[in-house]
Design goal:
By secondary structure, the chain is an alpha/beta fold. The protein contains ten helices and nine strands.
């Protein structure tokens, strides 16, 4: 496994593999790797000949006051983990390599960021699409893996690939959870011991909403309201608990069979923001 910091070095290295008709797989990350990231890399390893993982804490997706400066960074430890799952190259640029001193072009996103995380973090996904498009152009992978836990991000990247004609197959990796149901996240390390014991309640509430809807789809709004109240009583501060259509991330007027939906939640425990989701169709 090799760690590459420069764009042109990575491009040259991967071009040699392409000339030998090897397929390129890609898993972009911000580091602070955990089993969820490694699961994506394992799946990507099955779908390609050469596997690239990027480790880059992207400044353009953080708003002022968010945790860009404190976001955990440990390239040596991350590299050791990548080595256990068959990563061939780590691309680990710094901000000066990825961005010129002045930038002038931004992404504008219609509708798909009206709800969920896009509502409360209005500039976040502009930065995500900016860096993902740059990484796609640098790596030029045949297949790229992203996790279900960041479901709004996943739908936006699917849309980016479709609308901008990237010749890349996008695959979704399932959310990896601790034994108590908490979705793995680099930010879980921010939780105190007490907060960590409460945190699995988010997934339990989303699961209860799902079960209630399958029993009686007409009560979906009441189910959302009940679980918002339950979470607040447990000590969560709610950003959102919502149901949206997978196809366009809009809140439905009613739930219909054969449509795919997302039950999604974002909550705070102390200063730590947790997200999770369930994909479903009506039985």
């Amino acid at each position: 496994m090799n760690i590459i910091h420069g764009i042109e070095e990575l491009r040259g290295t991967l071009q040699q593999h392409r000339l030998e008709n090897r397929t390129i797989g890609f898993v972009p990350t911000m580091g602070a790797l955990h089993s969820g990231h490694l699961s994506l890399m394992k799946e990507a390893r099955k779908a390609c000949d050469i596997l690239v993982a990027s480790i880059f804490v992207n400044p353009t997706q953080f708003a002022p006051g968010e945790d860009f400066e404190s976001y955990p960074r440990n390239l040596e430890q991350d590299a050791e983990q990548c080595g256990t799952v068959g990563v061939d190259y780590i691309f680990a640029p710094d901000s000066r390599e990825m961005y010129p001193p002045e930038t002038y072009i931004r992404f504008e996103i219609d509708n798909l960021t009206r709800n969920l995380c896009g509502h409360s973090r209005p500039t976040h996904f502009q930065g995500v699409l900016q860096v993902v498009s740059k990484l796609f152009n640098i790596v030029q992978p045949d297949v790229a893996l992203f996790g279900q836990k960041d479901i709004q991000q996943y739908v936006l990247i699917e849309t980016l690939v479709k609308e901008f004609n990237f010749n890349i197959r996008i695959m979704m990796g399932e959310t990896v959870r601790d034994d108590d149901g908490l979705a793995l996240s680099s930010r879980n390390n921010y939780l105190s011991k007490e907060e960590r014991s409460i945190a699995p309640g988010l997934y339990r509430s989303l699961s209860d909403i799902h079960a209630s809807i399958q029993d009686n789809p007409e009560t979906w709004q009441a189910a959302l309201g009940q679980q918002r109240k339950t979470l607040q009583e447990k000590g969560f501060r709610i950003d959102y608990i919502s149901i949206v259509r997978y196809s366009n991330l809009q809140i439905p007027e009613r739930l219909e069979k054969d449509e795919k939906y997302i039950i999604a939640g974002a909550v705070f425990l102390g200063e730590t923001r947790l997200i999770d989701n369930i994909l479903f169709k009506l039985n």
